[in-house]
Amino acid sequence: MKEKVLFTLQTPYRKPLQVKGWYFGNPEEKTLAVMGALRGNEIQQMFLCSQLIQALAKLEEQGALSPDCGIVVVPCANQFSMNVGRRFWAADNTDINRMFPGYDGGETTQRIAARIFSALTGYAYGIHVASLYLPGDCIPHIRIMETGYQRPEDAEGFGLPYTLLRKPRPYDTTTLNYNWQIWNTQAFSLYASETDDLDPVAAQLGVEAILRFLAGKGFCRSVVGPGEATSLHHEENLINILSPVGGLLVHRLPLGAMVDAGDLLACILDPCTGQVLEQLFAPVFGRIFFRHRSRLIHGHDVAFRILKGNDPGVE
Amino acid sequence: MISEVVRVPLAVGEDFVIEKNSIGQGEKRVCVVTGTHGDELEGQYVAWRLAALLQQESSHLRGRVDIYPALNPLGISTMTRGMPLCDLDMNRTFPGDLQGAMSEYVAARLIEDIANADLCIDIHASNIFLRELPQVRINENTAPSLVPLARHLNMDLIWIHSAATVLESTLAHSLNTLGTPTLVVEMGIGMRVSPDYGEQLLTGILSLLSHLGMWDAPVMPVAPPIVSSDGAVFFVNADVPGLFFPSSDHHTRVTEGQELGVIADPLTGKVRQRLCSPTTGLLFTLREYPVVYEGSLIARILGGSQ
Known about the structure:
The complex is a heterodimer. By secondary structure, chain A is α/β, with parallel strands linked by helices. Chain A has helices spanning 43-61, 79-82, 108-120, 176-182, 200-216, and strands at residues 2-9, 17-25, 32-37, 70-76, 125-130, 136-138, 141-145, 162-166, 186-191, 231-234, 238-242, 247-251, 258-259, 264-269, 276-281, 286-292, 296-297, 302-308. Chain A has a nine-stranded mixed sheet with strand order 1-2-4-3-5-9-7-8-10, with helices on both faces. In chain A, strands 6, 11, 13, 16 and 18 form a five-stranded antiparallel sheet that branches. In chain A, a hairpin with a 7-residue loop joins strand 1 (2-9) and strand 2. Chain A is globular and about 60 Å long. Classes of the chains: A alpha/beta, B alpha/beta. The interface between A and B is large, with 41 and 41 residues.
């Protein structure tokens, strides 16, 4: 394991910001790059990377990495915001993950994105341990952008039960995942349930998925089980259940539960009187894939996303 | 007439409502929208003055003007640039989706309401960091049809910029794609109002209404704007962090090599960088907020302009 400062950013009133990468295996090889927290609230994403570093260090020590394998893990590129409790770049509220591939002559977060991208480009595979924009929790899964360069069959190697294919929207074109694909890196976003809080079980699942992927490609000795069969879904297969009213959201079923059409998912209460304003029912048979976390919910907020139909199996 | 464009219930005893003021009647319709970014207030002055003037002089109006002062009312009321509920830039959510989450639903309802107007004017200020000369920004793909309209708006500059995929999620792009000509105005600075710029734009709006046959009172003549593409715009960014103190004035002509300002270090008392103009031209963007980081935009200069 080799710790390396990828770049340093000077700041006017704080000490220089160092973004570090941890390298494993053959330094001449660019096999896998793993990016953790780009936003200041991505604690789970940083934690997952830290656990991956522990696991890779152990494998390297045991000689379990193949000679043609070179890995870099960057757990956090935004301690500047994380240390002051801000989600986006604390000086101007811009999102580093809306700045890729970056521009080294541009504004601050464009420069940060350019330096991250420069350090992580040229790898055969890239994994961004990502967080959702929506405030809530999701089942751990892999997400792939449909850029035309995607190879979704590779996602089977993670052994996670779900892989989602997403058609990029205009704002996706400035994400790390999208730009990796365009620059010839097979890119995956790994979602590990939480963002602001730690979920050690989901983080361990994510670490094992990455190790399984590497082992499947022959880059390291297999140290985890075979995982689960992956079912591949287009994002349109997720059915949004929107809240028709505002109020307090009280869940009736857990994340991951299988539901039949008509099952009660949650109630929305008047926040002052406790009167039930609405009951949210599953519109289809499927699995609760996403659940709004905040107990306060506004009208038209996405309360649930149900993955339609049976799984596993390819859609 | 004041009416609601969209209403969404919030969690605790309040509704999110976007309102518009429709003044006049007739076949032709112009929409004036502002307040997409909650920290941009320049358009509030224009909305206020335009509503008052059109109502006072309604006999001269031939058609309908819809004024939407606050597309992001929660942002304006909380001094937040984006939509406070989801931390999203509202101007990256268009054209929206009626079946989507709240931000997408609101965006879709706005598009539905504005589409088919004869013209839309989308007024922005700069953010809190930069002061901007009054200007119209036009995507190169729509320049042939929009520049002739923009010339009437009494702005100092028309900046024809290159197309970028990410900008396809803006209100202006969505409306232009639907065939509703939409002009984006940028002027002044965030969290402040520049009444002089507001009055300048007000004259321009009346001039444009007159051009469209919707205003029959005499209007002040408007000065021809500078029309420029990306190629003539030079950027100056900070190479070091510190405090920027300008030594050139905004909206002046600068010469190549002229000092624009310094980046100072208050701890050591030293100057960390002297920033000079890379070209001779018009200083149309200048840093207002003094704290800068490596990469912070300091100035834009329109090269060669007189």
